[in-house]
Design the sequence.
């Protein structure tokens, strides 16, 4: 057949593998217009109709709508433009489906109630901007008017969850738990108190560079004593308490007296709130970070030891 050969609808159907009904459908809508008519009045098509139908079938398989296909074959819009727009739409659909799968998997694992599933679904569907606003409100409560200091700004960044576009079910579950936790008024008060205590330490010491946190001091000193089975009320705990309080006194520039020990006790009790550790654990799951070390055992041991040696 040469380039001037004309084809009937049946010929086009055989060449393209489409049904006669489908070819007629596209022809009726002007997507594959006929070139002429046979003596009997039947529609005839040129060789370009084969190429058009192949393109139409490919675009339909990709989910492109008929009005857009019409514009492509008529060269009103370029194929790359259509492909880019459709790829972006598909990416959104894929992300939505993956989130739904993750939510359903998490619901299955948790044995959630219908109310919990609804909450989980709503929180998981939040846009990235909406998630940032929700967590930003929590962090504003904790660090507002303090995070102009680079040290607090760094802590704030380190406490920001970043749910990936293709989260695993455990990341969705962790995000939901963390979002719920961030709205707990008591937990917000604990985090604000910790930030204010830290700021007060900086003001007392007059030091503007980051200093060793008392929680880290406790971990270094109390961890070995705890591992060795030392009773926090026994005399064996005395040097451990003395080492931490002396270092803390040096850091804040105050004498190691009963007042300092009471402040340290309050500081450590706030830091030992189990919700704080839960937040950091959930954060590590969402951000795919290594699981944080649990400091609760060492903190609990030292708090008992310090309380036993601090006047009420």
Sequence:
């Amino acid at each position: 057949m040469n380039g001037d050969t004309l084809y009937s609808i049946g010929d086009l159907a055989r060449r393209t593998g489409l049904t006669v009904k489908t070819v007629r459908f596209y022809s009726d809508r002007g997507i594959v217009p006929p070139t002429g008519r046979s003596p009997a009045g039947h529609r005839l098509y040129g060789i370009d109709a084969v190429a058009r139908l192949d393109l139409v079938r490919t675009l339909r398989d990709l989910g492109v709508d008929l009005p857009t296909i019409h514009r492509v074959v008529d060269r009103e819009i370029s194929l790359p433009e259509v492909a880019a727009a459709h790829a972006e739409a598909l990416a959104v659909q894929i992300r939505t489906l993956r989130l739904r799968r993750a939510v359903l998997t998490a619901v299955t694992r948790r044995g959630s109630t219908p109310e919990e599933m609804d909450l989980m679904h709503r929180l998981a569907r939040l846009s990235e901007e909406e998630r940032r606003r929700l967590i930003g409100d929590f962090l504003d409560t904790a660090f507002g008017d303090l995070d102009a200091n680079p040290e607090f700004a760094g802590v704030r960044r380190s406490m920001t969850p970043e749910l990936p576009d293709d989260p695993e079910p455990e990341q969705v579950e962790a995000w939901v738990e963390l979002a719920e936790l961030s709205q707990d008024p008591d937990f917000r008060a604990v985090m604000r108190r910790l930030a204010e205590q830290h700021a007060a330490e900086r003001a007392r010491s007059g030091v503007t560079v980051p200093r060793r946190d008392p929680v880290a001091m406790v971990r270094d000193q109390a961890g070995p004593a705890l591992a060795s089975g030392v009773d926090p009320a026994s005399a064996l705990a005395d040097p451990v308490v003395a080492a931490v309080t002396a270092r803390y006194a040096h850091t804040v520039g105050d004498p190691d007296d009963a007042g300092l020990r009471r402040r340290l006790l309050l500081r450590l009790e706030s830091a030992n709130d189990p919700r704080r550790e839960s937040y950091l654990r959930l954060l590590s799951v969402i951000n795919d970070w290594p699981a944080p070390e649990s400091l609760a055992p060492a903190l609990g041991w030292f708090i008992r030891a310090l309380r036993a040696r601090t006047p009420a």
Observations:
- The beta strands are 36-37, 43-44.
- The two ends are 104 Å apart (CA to CA).
- The mean pLDDT is 86.
